[in-house]
UniProtKB/TrEMBL annotation:
CDD domains: AdoMet_MTases
Swiss-Prot/TrEMBL GO biological process terms: amino acid activation for nonribosomal peptide biosynthetic process; secondary metabolite biosynthetic process
UniProt-listed PANTHER family: FATTY ACID SYNTHASE (PTHR45527:SF1), NONRIBOSOMAL PEPTIDE SYNTHETASE (PTHR45527)
GO cellular component annotations of the record: cytoplasm
Species for this entry: Mantoniella antarctica
Domain Methyltransferase, residue spans: 878-998
AMP-dependent synthetase/ligase domain mapped to chain residues: 327-684
Protein name: Carrier domain-containing protein
Biased composition (Polar residues): 7-16
GO MF annotations in UniProt: phosphopantetheine binding; S-adenosylmethionine-dependent methyltransferase activity
Gene3D superfamilies the UniProt entry points to: 3.30.300.30, N-terminal domain of ligase-like, Vaccinia Virus protein VP39
Pfam families attached to this UniProt entry: AMP-binding, Methyltransf_31
UniProt-listed SUPFAM superfamilies: Acetyl-CoA synthetase-like, S-adenosyl-L-methionine-dependent methyltransferases
Length: 1157
């Protein structure tokens, strides 16, 4: 199993190091890197230089995540006191991202050997390695020292290229050499970025560790990105940070959740325990009593012989025959939201069985798979809403997953392996009502319950299936010990007690529901369960929280954002006062900085919590505060967190776990977040292979055999011991040992004039292996999917342009449908998907300024929030989205509507959205429909009685103006009178030159000449493949192309936003309103306009104010004041740039041009 590879950090993203500026780097392979340095014929000095060079390369590999360096190696006089240096021996060290330490060392040896026998040339250097001449004094040749400041003047000499010398070290024999970090940068416009290390002593220590560990890493064949850097003092400090989180009292007592709740019922039997919204609350006595009866029914169903019934005597007899109760059994719980759900979950644990939470909103096939893979013995359900029938349907649909224990237990001949699955009903009304009314039986019931609550911390508490973007879900097994430890730590964190009131909004299938459901019972507080409808409606949810005096609330950032937005519409100060007393927990997805700031300002206490399902809900927590608003804080009780660089398994390891080589990362150096301690689950049920892969042995465990969990998240330690999550690890593909960025290949293909659109995928292919009999071997290869452009000579294109449009709508429709095939592949690649927040999935949204990479999260968030804000202002209730894509708009706006239909030409896009709205706990949207349709097919959905149609980010792929008119006409005809058609993200044809000039200037090499930049920008305009529209064209459309009386208003709005991006600067939105009365209406006809031109009549906002306030006697006020040519401040750079490009000889290079701007 190859380990996940750490994602490359961008310049400036790693505190303590900034990526160096320098020349373009050759990305070809390093040649014969597999050879061992031991086989090289090197002199002693060359071998010493190779070790020193490799130590620094491995250091910078961890600091910067780069794997391509240029270095200079000197031999200098003792003491280094000269003002100039001998000619530099230039070496180039480049290696594969997954290269091992022996390969890096061999590459360094090759480079030094080549430089020794060849004349060196001036090149851009990333760092220098110097080795002083030895005079026989003590000190090994491998004593790596940081070069002192005396060399700065020498580095400015003519023998060294004056470009970006960013990190300088020396191997020095003299014992009195000074230790210091030296960032040497020669003067020059291109030397802005240098390496800055926040702690000089730590940098020195890391370099020493790198050299000291070199032989061990070579022997163990460690991957270069896992080569040790951390010092013993740093590692001891991290162990002390983890030790501060120890709470042994939570582990020494034999606590189980049922035992704690039973104790609460005995001490405060009449305290309110749980209610569904504002309905009558169950007391703790009622909760435990109902749970006892469900537990008795469950025990009877599984242990009592047929005909024995579910009486207390029969149950007690069965329990006596089975002292372990139902230990080892898994019981499904298939119920709606309410007190019965909590009672059923408690009942299962009372019998020492584990519960499997099932959401009735899940598809039958998904529920059936979970039942089968978990190996359930029975299901607790209800006759209400046909649940018992639906779970029977799900059981019949169950199909074993290949490779699981279920697939070995149930053969292909088992057509319905769960056909006879026992069910236990919770709604025997006569029996339960009579029991609840019999208060005298309270003590007897609690005594009977004793035999059902003598559980053990080692009992399995629940099995919960994780949902992924691909593949079959995996069942995570959590013990009572882990659950108890989690609840105890959360009670300590929040200060929860018997006055605590928690509102539950999360589906029971999401692991964070455990806190909402069980924390109130743990401390003797009260649980308020929100209905599905209320949980989706921020106004209703806010009202419920205030009316029920909820003082503790857990939710995802998406839900908190909606709640804070709803609060803006409230009147009076009561709501603000209430929220300032609230304890808020936010987790489940990354916490945006702006939301953290809003929660800090408006809520009482806010805790940012982090953790995967595999380590029992939350593993770290931080009180949100300045300056690090999004820190994930410190580990929770009895939890240890390590930031690890993980190397692949050692060949020949006897156990899978023992093959992992892990190197802890120092403070400020990113690595994979690995979690150990009491919260670590038992792994995946029936999937030992995946358990071994994700749960390696904990190298720092006190008890042999304890495991840690590899989260797959990138993180780092801060200097104060707090943790920061930096996102997920990379999503590159590996072809024949090489890691490939698919976006770079797509960009290169799309640049060809013959290619209209390109999508590149890595696909398995069967290949026969020469000399080997049997089945062919499956390998990965790159496959490109292309749409050809209608490439014809330029003269022909010009002739066609003069002739005008062909009006061939049939051809346009065929071309539009062809996009579906391309985007089927584009949406299948989830390269920018955070599975915890699928509403921010911007896979496929390429950045023109950084080809091959998607836009940064804050940019995309601002973009989608702006769009959704504008659409929400139209107050949609029944909406259709044409081109829903990844669902970023759908998943936000559907919650505001009573009916929402999303369509797309891509089946992958539609299926992704379907999976989210049926499975993701924060986006269960039963009122949302999905379909395959093009942008021109809005009339197919006229029966939905639509008031809003949305088509965002699609118009640039329209084939012609005729098709655009067709889309507008069909969409307006599909909405009710007074409804709206929102056409968003339209590219502005007036700014095409600005766009291409900006992109080419930003991406041009610093040394490139300006004339070539002008040619590239002009070619970009000439060969633009997307569909752009002049905003004025929509006014012409209204008068000349739309049916009379269809539209009575068109509003064109520039895209707003703080970021200077192509989303905001070069695109705009158009809103069409269908005529409300059905009569004809001439858009703008008869209105009186007074036009002012900016910089002629107007030159400031003060001048505008003067016109608006003109009250001269007899002055006729027009219907509208119009201003033309108002400048967009965000485009000031581009306007100046176009003027500069008209005189390309003004600047010596593209870098000089950028500097002047």
């Amino acid at each position: 199993m190859a380990p996940a590879n750490l994602r490359a950090t961008t310049a400036g993203s790693n505190p303590g190091v900034t990526a160096c500026a320098g020349s373009e780097r050759d990305t070809r392979g390093a040649g014969s890197a597999m050879a061992s340095i031991a086989h090289k014929e090197l002199s002693a000095s060359e071998a010493s230089d190779a070790r020193a060079l490799a130590s620094v390369v491995l250091l910078l590999r961890r600091y910067t995540d780069r794997h391509d360096f240029s270095a200079g190696v000197f031999t200098t006089p003792q003491g280094i006191r000269t003002a100039t240096l001998p000619a530099v021996r230039t070496v180039r060290v480049t290696f594969d991202e997954d290269a091992t330490v022996p390969q890096v060392l061999a590459t360094c040896a090759d480079a030094i050997a080549a430089a020794t026998h060849e004349k060196s040339a001036d090149v851009s250097l990333d760092f220098l390695v110097l080795r002083a001449a030895h005079d026989g004094s003590d000190g090994g040749a491998d004593d790596v020292r940081i070069l002192d400041d005396q060399l700065e003047a020498a580095l400015r000499g003519p023998s060294v290229s004056p470009q970006a010398v960013a990190f300088t070290v020396t191997t020095h024999a003299a014992q009195d050499a000074a230790y210091s970090v030296h960032s040497a940068v020669s003067p020059g416009a291109d030397n802005d970025a240098v390496s800055i290390f926040s702690d000089l002593e730590l940098t020195r220590g890391h370099l020493g560790t790198s050299l000291a560990a070199l032989d061990a890493s070579v022997e163990a064949n460690v991957v270069a990105h896992a080569h040790p850097l951390i010092t013993l003092d740093e590692l001891d400090q991290q162990h002390r940070w983890n030790a501060e989180c120890a709470r042994p009292a939570l582990l020494t007592r034999a606590l189980t959740l049922p035992g704690v709740i039973l104790a609460a019922a005995r001490s405060t039997p009449h305290a309110e325990a749980v209610s569904l919204e504002s309905e009558g609350a169950w007391t703790y006595r009622q909760l435990v009593s109902r749970a006892r009866r469900i537990a008795a029914k469950l025990t009877a169903a599984l242990l009592v012989k047929p005909g024995g019934g579910a009486s207390s005597a029969a149950t007690a007899a069965a329990a006596a025959d089975h002292p372990l109760g139902l230990k080892g059994h898994v019981v499904g719980v298939y119920l709606g939201r309410g007190p019965e759900l909590l009672a059923a979950l408690l009942a299962v644990q009372m019998t020492r069985a584990a519960y499997l939470p099932l959401d009735p909103l899940y598809p039958a096939e998904r529920v059936g798979c979970m039942l089968l893979d978990a190996g359930v013995s029975a299901v607790i359900t209800s006759n209400a809403e046909g649940l018992v029938h639906r779970v029977e349907v799900a059981a019949r649909a169950a199909v074993p997953a290949p490779g699981t224990d279920a697939s070995t237990k149930h053969t292909s001949s088992d057509a319905q392996p769960l056909a006879n699955l026992p069910t236990v009903l919770v709604d025997d009304a006569d029996e339960d009502a009579a029991a609840d009314a019999d208060a005298d039986a309270e003590e007897d019931e609690l005594e009977e319950l004793r035999t059902l609550t003598h559980g053990s911390p080692d009992d399995l508490a629940y099995v919960l299936f994780t949902s992924g973007s691909t593949g079959r879900p995996k069942g995570v097994q959590v013990t009572q010990r882990s659950l108890v430890n989690f609840l105890g730590s959360m009670a300590e964190l929040t200060g929860a007690d018997e006055s605590t009131r928690v509102c539950a909004v999360t589906t029971v299938c999401f692991d964070i529901a455990a806190l909402e459901l069980f924390l109130p019972a743990w401390v003797g507080g009260r649980l308020v369960v929100a209905s599905e409808e209320t949980a989706r409606d921020p106004d209703a949810l806010s009202a419920l929280m205030q009316s029920q005096k909820v003082n503790t609330m857990q939710a995802t950032p998406t839900t908190w954002r909606m709640l804070l937005a709803a609060a803006e519409s409230e009147t009076g100060e009561a709501g603000d006062d209430y929220r300032r007393q609230l304890t808020a927990l936010v987790g489940g997805e990354a916490l945006p900085t702006e939301l953290a700031g809003a929660m800090l300002r408006k809520l009482g206490r806010t805790f940012n919590v982090y953790g995967p399902t595999e380590t029992t809900v939350w593993s770290t927590a931080a009180r949100v505060s300045l300056p690090h608003l999004t820190s994930i804080g410190r580990p929770v009780a009895n939890t240890r967190v390590y930031i690890m660089a993980v190397s692949e398994p050692v060949p020949g390891a006897s156990e899978p776990d023992q093959g992992f080589l892990m190197s802890p990362s120092p403070v400020g150096v990113p690595g994979e977040i690995c979690i150990a301690g009491a919260g670590v689950s038992l792994g995946y049920r029936g999937r030992q292979d995946l358990t071994d892969e994700r749960f390696p042995l904990d190298p720092y465990a006190r008890k042999p055999g304890e495991r840690m969990y590899r989260t797959g998240d990138l993180g780092m330690y801060r200097a104060d011991g707090s943790l920061q999550c930096l996102g997920r690890l990379d999503h590159q593909v590996k072809i024949r040992g090489y890691r490939v960025e698919l976006g770079e290949i797509e960009t290169a293909l799309a640049a060809l004039p013959e290619v209209e659109q390109a999508v590149v995928m890595a696909r398995p292919v069967s290949m026969a292996v020469a000399g080997v009999d049997g089945a062919p071997e499956e390998q990965m290869q790159l496959v490109a999917y292309l749409i050809e452009s209608d490439f014809v000579p330029e003269s022909t294109l010009e002739d066609d342009a003069r002739k005008g449009s062909t009006n061939d709508l049939a051809k346009d429709l065929a071309e539009a449908v062809a996009w579906g095939a391309v985007y089927d592949e584009a949406y299948a690649v989830r390269d920018a998907l955070d599975e915890t927040d699928p509403s921010l999935n911007f896979s496929g949204y390429g950045n023109s300024y950084t080809p091959g990479k998607v836009h940064e999260v804050p940019v995309v968030r601002e973009w989608v929030d702006t769009i959704c804000g504008r659409i929400a202002a139209l107050k949609p209730r029944r909406a259709l989205e044409l081109g829903c894509g990844n669902g970023m708009i759908l998943l936000r706006l559907a919650k505001l509507c009573e009916r929402f239909v999303g369509t797309d030409l891509s089946t992958n896009a539609v299926e992704f959205c379907r999976q989210v709205i049926t499975e993701h706990p924060n986006f269960i949207l039963p009122h949302c429909g999905l379909d395959i349709a093009g942008a021109h097919e809005a009339m197919r959905f006229v029966h939905e009685r639509l008031d809003t149609v949305v088509c965002n980010g699609v118009s640039m792929y329209f084939p012609s103006a005729d098709y655009l008119c067709s889309v507008v006409t069909e969409s307006l005809a599909a909405v009710e009178p007074g409804g709206h058609f929102f056409l968003g993200d339209v590219r502005n044809a007036n700014l095409l030159r600005h766009f291409h000039a900006s992109v080419q200037t930003f991406t041009a090499p610093a040394a490139g000449d300006v004339a070539s930049l002008v040619v590239a920008a002009t070619a970009g305009v000439k060969h633009e493949k997307e569909f752009l529209v002049d905003p004025a064209a929509f006014l012409v459309m209204a008068r000349a192309h739309l049916p009379p009386g269809l539209c009575d208003r068109i509003t064109v709005d520039m895209r707003r936003g703080w970021h200077r991006t192509e989303f905001g600067m070069y695109r705009y939105d158009v809103v069409f309103r269908r005529t409300a009365d059905g009569g004809e209406h001439d858009v703008g006809g008869g209105a009186q306009y007074k036009l002012h031109t900016w910089d002629t009549d107007m030159d400031s906002l003060a001048a505008v104010e003067a016109v608006l306030s003109n009250k001269a006697p007899g002055a006729k006020r027009p219907d509208y004041l119009a201003f033309s040519g108002v400048p967009d401040a965000r485009l000031a750079y581009e306007r100046i740039l176009l003027a500069q490009l008209n005189n390309p000889t003004w600047h010596a290079s593209a870098g000089a041009l950028r500097g002047s701007l």
